[in-house]
Structures are given as structure tokens and as C-alpha cells.
Amino acid sequence: MRRWRIWLEWLLAAGLSLLITRLVLLLFAANPAQPFTQLILWLSQALVWPFAWLDAAQPQTGVRFERGTFLLIVLGMLGTGIWQLKQARRSTHGLE
């Protein structure tokens, strides 16, 4: 049971890292023709897709701040923090 939690934690950390990298690349107007930028944008597109409507009016090139990506980062960090608090509380009460 503990093994799936470790995998899930790593998966969440990888997803959040990918979203943070995407946000930084777009804030600094990374060249979309670069292979690294293309890879990060392609990998993170599936994560950002549900919130794409928030950024429909954003320009496709240049500096842009994707509100959907930022919202996902905040929600992911809040969820991870709540989960960590819950796990810490369970382990101190001997439930695990």
C-alpha cells in the first residue's frame, strides 16, 4: 500500500515540475522553435487542456501568463500540502 503512495508522490512532483517549467518558459517568451521548449509544451499540454478556456484570448507568441497553468500549480501545491498534513497526522496517531 505504501508503494503506490510513493509512486503517486513522484508523479505529482513530476507534473508540478513540468507545469512550473511551462509557466517560466512562457513568461520569458521562450522560442517555440527550440526542441526543449517544444518538448515541455507538448508534455504539459494534456495537463493544461481542461483550463485552456481561461487563456483563449492570450497571444500565441511572445510573453504570456497562462492563468490556467498557474491555477493548476496552485491547486496541485494545495492538494499536496493537504495530503502531506493528512499523512503526518495519520502517522503520529499510529494509524499507518
Automatic annotation (TrEMBL):
Listed transmembrane segments: 68-85
Organism listed in the record: Herpetosiphon geysericola
UniProt protein name: YggT family protein
Keywords from the UniProt entry: Membrane, Transmembrane, Transmembrane helix
